[in-house]
Specification:
44% of the residues lie in helices and 10% in strands. The protein is α/β, with parallel strands linked by helices and 558 residues long. The strands form three sheets. The protein has an eight-stranded mixed sheet, sandwiched between helices. Helix 3 packs antiparallel against helix 5 and helix 15 runs parallel beside helix 17. It is elongated, with a radius of gyration of 30 Å. GO terms for molecular function: transferase activity. This is Phosphoglycerol transferase. It is a multi-pass membrane protein.
C-alpha cells in the first residue's frame, strides 16, 4: 500500500509488484530449462514490456478495487515448492521426498540449505502478495485467474507425479517389474571366497570423465581404471537417484519404491527398510562373511543404519561411532567426517577384519562430492590449493584422488589380497556448479572392478545400477541363477539387461505403474486389512473316567 513515509518513487506499488512477478517468472524458466541464471533478466524484461503494453495493474477503464483472495495462491505456492526442489536438486524425485519423510531426516548435514529455504519462503510470500494486489486492482486478472489456477494445477509436474502414483492403484497391470524380479540365490560358491571392498563415491558419476567438458577432474579415477574392468553406460532408473536408493539399487537389485501407505505407522520413522527382499549383505552373511559399513555421516539419516543392520551387517559405523575416535574433534563438516579421516579409519577396520578368520566385506560411503559444492578434505586443500566453496570440479578431483590414494595404500599394505574392489558412484549428482555441462549429454554412473583375476578392459553396456548386484556376485566367483539377481543382470555375462531390452523410458513408465514390487519390498510392514478374524470357538474336550467305562455294557462276543 502507498505510504506517505516512503519516497515518491516507491509510493506506487504497481511496478514493484510486476517486477516481483517478472523476476519469479524468469527464475522459474531459468531453473526448469537449460538457460543460464542470467536468463531470468530477458524473461522478466519481456513480462514488464507486456505489462506496459496491456497496462496491467492500471487498466484504462478501472473497476472498483475488490478485496478478494485469488484462487491461484495455492497453485502458485505449489509451483514455488517445485521450483525450489528443482533449483536445489536439479531433478525433482517424489520418491526421494516421500522416502525421507518416512525414513527420518534427523542428523542431516544440509544445514547450509536452511538459509536458502528461508530466502525462498520470503520471496514466495512477496510473490503471493504481489499477485494478490494485481488481482484486486485489475479486474481483467480477476476474470482470468481462475483459469490460471486450473492451468497451474494441471501443469505442475509434482502433482502430475502424485496423480500417476495414485492411478497405479487401479492400473490393469501393476506387476510388470514383479514378473521380471528374480530372487537372489547363490547356487554355488568358490572354495576360497574373496573379500569385498565396496567404495561408494558420493555423486561421482562417470560423466565427469569427459575431458572436453570437465578437464582433469576425473583423471585419478581414469588412472585407477587402467588396471580395472570399467563399465561405461550404467544409467540411472527413477527411484535410484539418491544415496539410500542408489545403495539399495546396487545391493538389492531393485529401485527404492517408498513404503507409502504400506508403512505400519505413518507418524513414526521406518523400523525396517525393504525387509521383503534379500540383498548383498544377506547373501554374504549367510556365507559366513563378517560385514562392516562405514560412512562419515550419521547412520540415523534416511534409515541408513536400519537398512544395514537388518541386512546382515555386523558393524555399522557412522558419525556417532567414528567421531569420538578423531584426533582433531573439530575437523568435521555439517554432515560428519571428511573423507581423508574416514579413509584412515577404513584402513584400521580392514586391518581388524584381516586378523579375523573367514571372509569379510566392507562397504564405505564417501562425502567429498556431495552436492551442491562438495566437502573437499584438508589433504586435498594442501595439495590443490584454496577451495572457492562453489566449484564442484574441485571436489570431484579431490574425491577421485582420495579414492585412488586409498586403493594404492591398501595394495602397498597387502590388504587387498584375494579381495574384490568395487568403485561405484551411489547415483548421478544433483544440481551443482557444472549442471549445464552435465545435462548437455547422456550421463552414466561410475562402476569398476579391481581384482587379481581380472584383465583390465572397458565394457560398453546399456545397464542400470540395479545390475551391480549380480555383477558383483559373479565377480566374486559365486554362481547365481541365470546370471540374474533382483531386476539386475550380470554385466559379465552375455544376457541382455532390462535397459537393453526395454529402454530407460519404458522402465520408468512401468515403475510409475508398479504396485506388486512395492508390496514385495515392504512385505510385513502393511497394517492388517479389515477387522481381525473372530476367535475360534473353544470346544470342550470330554475325557472318560474309569467309572464311565465301568458303566458301559460290554460288547457281546460273537
Amino acid at each position: 500500500m502507498p505510504s506517505r513515509f516512503l519516497p515518491p518513487p516507491l509510493r506506487q506499488p504497481r511496478w514493484w509488484a510486476l517486477l516481483v512477478i517478472g523476476l519469479w517468472l524468469g527464475f522459474t524458466v531459468a531453473t526448469l530449462t537449460r538457460l543460464p541464471t542470467w536468463g531470468l533478466v530477458p524473461v522478466a524484461g519481456g513480462w514488464l514490456l507486456l505489462a506496459r503494453r496491456w497496462r496491467w495493474g492500471a487498466p484504462p477503464h478501472p473497476h472498483p478495487v475488490r478485496r478478494v483472495w485469488p484462487w491461484s495462491l495455492l497453485p502458485i505456492a505449489l509451483w514455488g515448492l517445485y521450483v525450489y526442489l528443482a533449483d536445489s536438486f536439479g531433478m525433482v524425485d517424489l520418491g526421494a521426498v516421500f522416502f525421507h519423510l518416512q525414513a527420518g531426516m534427523e542428523e542431516h548435514g544440509g544445514g547450509e540449505r536452511i538459509g536458502a529455504a528461508i530466502l525462498y519462503t520470503l520471496s514466495m510470500l512477496l510473490l503471493l502478495v504481489s499477485f494478490t494486489w494485481l488481482v484486486r486492482v485489475d479486474h481483467r486478472w480477476r476474470l482470468a485467474e481462475r483459469l490460471l489456477a486450473l492451468a497451474l494445477l494441471v501443469g505442475n509436474p509434482m502433482l502430475y507425479g502424485i496423480g500417476q502414483r495414485g492411478a497405479a492403484i487401479v492400473t490393469e497391470d501393476g506387476a510388470w517389474l514383479e514378473r521380471q524380479y528374480v530372487e537372489p540365490v547363490i547356487l554355488e560358491a568358490p572354495r576360497d571366497p574373496p573379500n569385498l571392498l565396496l567404495l561408494y563415491l558420493e555423486s561421482l558419476e562417470r560423466t565427469y570423465a569427459d575431458r572436453e567438458r570437465f578437464g582433469d577432474a576425473y583423471a585419478h579415477l581414469e588412472a585407477l581404471g587402467e588396471k580395472a574392468v570399467v563399465f561405461e553406460g550404467v544409467r540411472q532408473v527413477d527411484n535410484t537417484g539418491w544415496t539410500m536408493a542408489g545403495m539399495i539399487a546396487s545391493q538389492c537389485g531393485t529401485p527404492l519404491m517408498p513404503a507409502g501407505l504400506l508403512h505400519d505407522s505413518q507418524f513414526e520413522p521406518l523400523g525396517k527398510v525393504v525387509p521383503g527382499v534379500d540383498c548383498l549383505g544377506d547373501l554374504l552373511d549367510a556365507r559366513g562373511y563378517s560385514l562392516t559399513y562405514m560412512g562419515g555421516a550419521s547412520t540415523r539419516f534416511a534409515g541408513k543404519g536400519v537398512f544395514y543392520r537388518d541386512h546382515g551387517f555386523d558393524r555399522v559405523l557412522g558419525r556417532e561411532e567414528l567421531e569420538p575416535r578423531l584426533e582433531a574433534p573439530d575437523y568435521v563438516n555439517s554432515w560428519g567426517l571428511y573423507d581423508d579421516t574416514l579413509y584412515d579409519l577404513t584402513v584400521e577396520e580392514m586391518r581388524r577384519l584381516e586378523r579375523q578368520d573367514g571372509p569379510w566385506g566392507l562397504v564405505n560411503l564417501s562425502i567429498t562430492g556431495h552436492a551442491p559444492n562438495g566437502y573437499p578434505a584438508r589433504d586435498c586443500r594442501e595439495r590443490q590449493g584454496e577451495f572457492d566453496g562453489v566449484d564442484i570440479l574441485y571436489s570431484v578431483e579431490c574425491s577421485a584422488w582420495l579414492a585412488r590414494r586409498l586403493v594404492e595404500r591398501l595394495e602397498e599394505e597387502g590388504l587387498l589380497e584375494n579381495t574384490l574392489v568395487v568403485v561405484a558412484s551411489d547415483h548421478l549428482t544433483m544440481r551443482v556448479s557444472a549442471w549445464e555441462q552435465l545435462v548437455a549429454g547422456e550421463r552414466d554412473n561410475t562402476f569398476m572392478l579391481l581384482g587379481e583375476q581380472f584383465e583390465p578392459r572397458r565394457l560398453d553396456v546399456e545397464a542400470s545400477t540395479m545390475d551391480l548386484l549380480p555383477t558383483v556376485l559373479e565377480a566374486m566367483g559365486f554362481v547365481i541363477d541365470w546370471h540374474r539377481a533382483g531386476l539386475g543382470v550380470s554385466l559379465l555375462s552375455a544376457e541382455p539387461t532390462l535397459v537393453e531390452e526395454h529402454g530407460l523410458d519404458t522402465l520408468n513408465a512401468r515403475l510409475r505403474e508398479e504396485t506388486a514390487l512395492q508390496e514385495r519390498l515392504w512385505e510385513g510392514l502393511a497394517p492388517p486389512q479389515g477387522p481381525p478374524p473372530p476367535p475360534e470357538p473353544v470346544v470342550e474336550q470330554v475325557v472318560e473316567t474309569p467309572e464311565d467305562q465301568a458303566l458301559e455294557a460290554p460288547e457281546e462276543l460273537p
